[in-house]
Amino acid sequence: MTLWTRILRLVSGEARSQIARLDDPAASVDAAYRTQLEVVDEVRGHLVDLLTARKRLEMQLTSYERSGAQASAVEAFRAEIEELRVREDGLAAAADELRRRADALRAERDMTRARVAAAKAGIAAHGAIAELTPEHAEIRTLLEDARERTLALQARAAALAELVARDANPPPRAEATVDRDALTPPPDRR
Q1: 38 lies in the same domain as 99
Q2: Domain total of the chain
Q3: Range of the structural domain that residue 54 is part of
Q4: Mean pLDDT, residues 106-124 taken together
Q5: What is the number of other CB atoms lying within 10 angstroms of the CB of residue 29?
Q6: What is the mean pLDDT of residues 103-122?
Q7: Is 153 found in the same domain as 75?
Q8: Phi-psi map region of 2: left, alpha, beta (phi>0 left; psi -120 to 50 alpha)
Q9: Cβ neighbours of residue 80 closer than 8 Å, sequence gap 6 or more
Q10: Can you tell me whether residue 172 is helix, strand or coil?
């Protein structure tokens, strides 16, 4: 399989999934939920990076304090650590808000799935009642065919019954009267 074939399959598969998503509202909400989760994970990753940077600075501060570094350098470290804590708190609050939004999207996704399932069930039920589904069209066709074959069989049975009745009771024959004198040869007159 060539690279271009793989790329074309990938693109066409993505296009099909986009079309399916347009057709299914639950899929759209599910895609939004997954995207929101990706954003939450990204923010949490940045939060971990920020926390790691702060912990590293705290370890360096401890090292500077032990080595007897200048008070201004130690104070600069403390100010930077405090600024990182403020950023960390802000980022943690943002991550929590994003997580709440993701939870709301999950609830919306579940409700949308339930609504779609209910709508499809309603369509199926009402379609069955109205006999609009392809299955009902097939049922109607099968019933009409069965009725036609039944009528044909009934007509054939009636025709056969009539033939049997005719053969069992033949019509009376007219008796032929034979003139016996006409059948005998005339006497010789010689």
Answers
A1: yes
A2: 2
A3: 12-130
A4: 87
A5: 20
A6: 89
A7: no
A8: beta
A9: 57
A10: coil
Q: Is the dihedral of CA 128, 130, 133, 137 positive or negative?
A: positive
A 10 A CB-CB count for 91 gives 18
- At 14, is the pLDDT very low, low, confident or very high (cuts 50, 70, 90)? low
pLDDT band at 55 (very low <50, low <70, confident <90, very high): very high
Q: Is the pTM of this model over 0.70?
A: no
Going from the C-alpha of 40 to that of each of 43, 103, 104, 110, the distances in angstroms are 5, 11, 13, 19
Residues whose CB is less than 8 angstroms from the CB of residue 46 and which lie 6 or more positions away in sequence, other chains included: 91
Residues 84, 10: Cα–Cα separation, whole Å: 43
Statement to judge: residues 91 and 163 lie in one domain: no
20 three-state secondary structure: helix
Phi, psi angle pair for 5, to nearest 5°: -65, -40
Same domain, 19 and 109: yes
Mean pLDDT of 10-34: 71
Do the Cβ atoms of 57 and 80 come closer than 8 Å? yes
